[in-house]
C-alpha cells in the first residue's frame, strides 16, 4: 500500500469550521497531502497526515453548513471512503458554562466523558417537553470507543501528576507556522470577560458599551495554560447565545459546554468530542477567541493520540468502527449511470459465501416489517409478497440460511440518471405522502444495520416442501386456475432503524398540500424504527405437466406428483396428470423492475437493473 492509500489511515478527525481545520492540520507531525483518488459521490475534501504513530484523515464540514445532520453525513462518508478508520475525533470550539463548581475560562478544553447511561454528549433540543418546561430526553447516543476512553483516563491521570502540555504544543505550532501567531495565540486575560447570565449584550461587535458593573469577578489564574474539564457536552442545531437558557439547561443536565455537531455524529461515527472554549454561550459571544480555542482543542487531541499505541487491537473498537461488529459500513451509491458502485463490505457475520445461491435483489415497493415476510414462502404475486403467501416451514439460522450484517449502512442515491426513474418512484412511496409526486434530488439512506438473509440450499428445501400434500394442493390449485407465475422467496435484505434523507421532493399540485408530511422532518427526512425489509430475492417456480410416458421412478421424487383435472371435462381414465415443480436456475427479476446485487466482500459493483 502507498502512503496515500486510504487503508493506511486509522483515525478520523472531523471539524466544523475552517479555523478548526487549520489548527488540526497545523498540529500534524507529518503532512501527506490530499487523497490521490476519490469516489465520484464523495464531495468532501480530506487532508492526510500523521500524529505520533497514527495516520490521520481530517475533514471539515462545507462552509456555512453546520448542525447535527451535516456532521452525521460527513461521518458516514468518511468511514465509507476510509475503511480502516478505528475511531473518530470531533474537534473544535464550543461555548463554555462557567459556574462555581466548574471555573471554565476562555481557551480551556472540555472533553466528553460518559456518565452512567450518558455517552458524554446529549442532544438538548431533542426530547419531550413536560408541563413545567423541563426537557425530558427520550433517546441515548453511542459512547466513544473503549480505546479512546482508556487513553483519556490515562492522560487525565498524567495531567494531574505533571500538568498538561497544551501550551507547549501550541508554541511549537506557532513556531512552525509563524503566520498563525496573531490569531492563534492566547488573547490576554483582560479580554476574558464574563457577564451575569441575565445581562444582555448592548450594541456593537465587542462589549465596549456593556456595563462593567455587570461583569462577574473571578479569581485570577496563576497560569495561562488552559485547564481541561471532563463531562457532558450539550449538542443542538441552534447556536446557544442566552445566559439564562444556558444555565437552566446546564443545571438540569450537568452540561459543561454547548456546540452544534456532536449529537449527529455519535450514532454514525462513534468518537470523542473535544471542545476549546471560545465564548460563554451568551449574548456577548464574539469570535476573538475562536482560533486560540481551536488550537487548544487540537493540542489536547494530539496529546491524546500520542498516548495511544499504534498496535492496539481492541475488539470493541473494531466492532464500532471497522464495520462495527457491535452495531459495519457498506458505503454504496447509485451513480450517474446505471450502476451502483460499492466498496467491499468489511464485517460479515454468520455467513458462508459459498452457500449464497443468489446475487439479485429486487427493491420492494414499500418497507415491510421483517415478521411480515418469511423465507421459503410461496407467493402468487411478488408485488405483494406479504399477501396470500403459503408458509409451510420455519427455517433454522446457520443450518438453513445465513446472515450477513453491514453496520452503519449508507447508500447515496443519485437523481441524474434517467434509468433511475423507477427507483425514485419507489422512494416517493417510502416518503408516504399524497403530496409527494416524485423524489427529485439525491437521497441518502442511512441505517444502523443492513442485514442479508439468504437460504443456503433453496432447491433442496423447495423439494422437501414439494413433498407435503398441502404444498402440492396449493401449487396444483394455482396451476389449474391461474396463468400467473408463482415465486419462492430465497432471501431478503433489511434495514434497521433507517433514515431516508431527500434534498428535493416534487410536490403533486393536485393535492394542494404542504411539503410537510407525516414521518418526515426538515430536509425531507423519513425515519423508520425496527427492522424493515427493503429488497427481496425471488426464484420463479416452474410447473410442468407430464401426461404420457412418465417413468415411474419420477414419482419417487418429492417434486413430482399425480393430479386429476376433474374440472377439465375429461374421462376418468384420461384425467391422470403428472405435475413437476422446480425452481428456475437464475433469480428472477422483472423486465421493468429495479434491483441491486449483493455479494461477498470481493465484489466491486452492485448492478442497478431497470
Automatic annotation (TrEMBL):
GO biological process: one example: nucleoside metabolic process
MF terms (GO), sorted A to Z: catalytic activity
Gene3D superfamilies to which the protein is assigned, alphabetical: Nucleoside phosphorylase domain
Positions of the Nucleoside phosphorylase domain: 11-299
InterPro entries the record matches: NLR-like (IPR053137), Nucleoside_phosphorylase_d (IPR000845), Nucleoside_phosphorylase_sf (IPR035994)
PANTHER family assigned: AAA+ ATPASE DOMAIN-CONTAINING PROTEIN-RELATED (PTHR46082:SF11), ATP/GTP-BINDING PROTEIN-RELATED (PTHR46082)
Protein's recorded name: Nucleoside phosphorylase domain-containing protein
Amino acid at each position: 500500500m502507498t502512503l496515500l492509500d486510504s487503508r493506511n489511515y486509522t483515525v478520523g478527525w472531523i471539524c466544523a469550521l475552517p479555523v478548526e481545520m487549520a489548527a488540526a492540520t497545523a498540529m500534524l507531525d507529518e503532512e501527506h497531502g490530499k487523497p490521490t483518488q476519490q469516489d465520484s459521490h464523495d464531495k468532501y475534501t480530506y487532508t492526510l497526515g500523521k500524529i505520533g504513530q497514527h495516520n490521520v484523515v481530517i475533514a471539515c464540514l462545507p462552509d456555512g453548513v453546520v448542525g447535527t445532520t451535516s456532521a452525521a453525513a460527513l461521518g458516514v462518508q468518511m468511514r465509507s471512503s476510509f475503511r480502516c478508520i478505528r475511531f473518530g475525533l470531533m474537534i473544535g470550539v464550543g461555548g463554555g458554562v462557567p459556574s462555581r463548581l466548574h471555573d471554565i475560562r476562555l481557551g480551556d478544553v472540555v472533553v466528553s466523558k460518559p456518565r452512567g447511561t450518558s455517552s458524554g454528549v446529549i442532544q438538548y433540543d431533542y426530547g419531550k417537553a413536560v408541563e413545567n418546561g423541563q426537557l425530558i430526553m427520550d433517546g441515548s447516543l453511542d459512547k466513544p470507543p473503549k480505546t479512546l476512553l482508556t487513553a483519556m483516563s490515562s492522560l487525565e491521570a498524567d495531567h494531574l501528576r505533571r500538568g498538561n502540555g497544551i501550551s507547549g504544543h501550541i508554541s511549537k505550532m506557532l513556531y512552525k507556522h509563524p503566520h498563525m501567531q496573531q490569531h492563534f495565540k492566547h488573547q490576554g486575560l483582560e479580554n476574558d470577560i464574563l457577564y451575569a447570565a441575565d445581562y444582555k449584550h448592548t450594541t456593537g461587535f465587542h462589549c465596549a458599551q456593556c456595563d462593567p458593573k455587570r461583569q462577574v469577578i473571578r479569581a485570577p489564574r496563576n497560569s495561562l495554560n488552559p485547564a481541561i474539564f471532563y463531562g457532558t457536552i450539550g449538542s443542538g442545531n441552534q447556536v446557544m447565545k442566552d445566559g439564562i437558557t444556558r444555565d437552566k439547561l446546564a443545571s438540569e443536565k450537568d452540561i459543561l459546554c454547548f456546540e452544534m455537531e456532536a449529537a449527529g455524529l455519535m450514532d454514525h461515527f462513534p468518537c470523542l468530542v473535544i471542545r476549546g472554549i471560545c465564548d460563554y454561550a451568551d449574548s456577548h459571544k464574539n469570535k476573538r477567541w475562536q482560533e486560540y480555542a481551536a488550537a487548544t482543542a487540537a493540542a489536547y487531541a494530539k496529546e491524546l493520540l500520542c498516548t495511544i499505541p499504534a498496535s492496539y487491537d481492541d475488539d470493541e473498537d473494531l466492532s464500532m468502527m471497522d464495520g462495527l461488529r457491535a452495531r459495519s459500513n457498506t458505503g454504496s451509491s447509485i451513480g450517474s449511470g446505471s450502476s451502483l458502485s460499492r466498496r467491499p463490505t468489511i464485517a460479515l457475520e454468520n455467513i458462508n459465501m459459498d452457500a449464497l445461491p443468489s446475487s439479485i435483489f429486487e427493491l420492494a415497493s414499500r418497507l415491510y416489517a421483517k415478521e411480515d415476510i418469511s423465507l421459503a414462502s410461496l407467493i402468487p404475486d411478488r408485488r405483494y409478497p406479504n399477501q396470500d403467501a403459503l408458509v409451510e416451514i420455519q427455517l433454522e439460522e446457520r443450518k438453513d440460511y445465513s446472515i450477513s450484517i453491514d453496520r452503519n449502512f449508507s447508500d447515496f442515491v443519485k437523481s441524474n440518471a434517467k434509468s433511475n426513474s423507477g427507483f425514485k418512484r419507489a422512494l416517493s412511496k417510502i416518503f408516504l405522502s399524497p403530496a409527494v409526486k416524485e423524489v427529485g434530488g439525491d437521497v441518502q439512506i442511512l441505517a444502523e444495520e443492513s442485514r442479508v438473509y439468504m437460504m443456503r440450499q433453496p432447491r433442496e428445501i423447495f423439494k422437501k416442501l414439494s413433498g407435503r400434500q398441502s404444498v402440492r394442493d396449493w401449487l396444483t390449485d394455482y396451476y389449474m386456475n391461474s396463468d400467473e407465475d408463482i415465486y419462492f422467496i430465497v432471501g431478503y435484505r433489511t434495514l434497521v432503524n433507517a433514515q431516508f434523507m431527500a434534498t428535493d421532493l416534487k410536490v403533486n399540485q393536485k393535492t394542494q398540500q404542504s411539503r410537510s408530511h407525516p414521518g418526515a422532518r426538515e430536509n425531507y427526512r423519513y425515519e423508520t424504527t425496527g427492522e424493515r425489509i427493503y429488497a427481496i430475492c425471488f426464484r420463479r417456480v416452474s410447473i410442468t405437466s407430464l401426461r404420457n410416458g412418465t417413468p415411474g421412478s419420477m414419482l419417487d421424487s418429492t417434486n413430482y406428483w399425480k393430479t386429476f383435472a376433474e374440472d377439465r371435462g375429461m374421462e376418468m381414465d384420461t384425467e391422470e396428470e403428472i405435475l413437476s415443480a422446480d425452481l428456475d436456475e437464475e433469480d428472477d427479476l422483472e423486465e421493468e423492475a429495479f434491483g441491486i446485487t449483493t455479494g461477498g466482500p470481493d465484489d466491486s459493483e452492485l448492478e442497478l437493473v431497470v
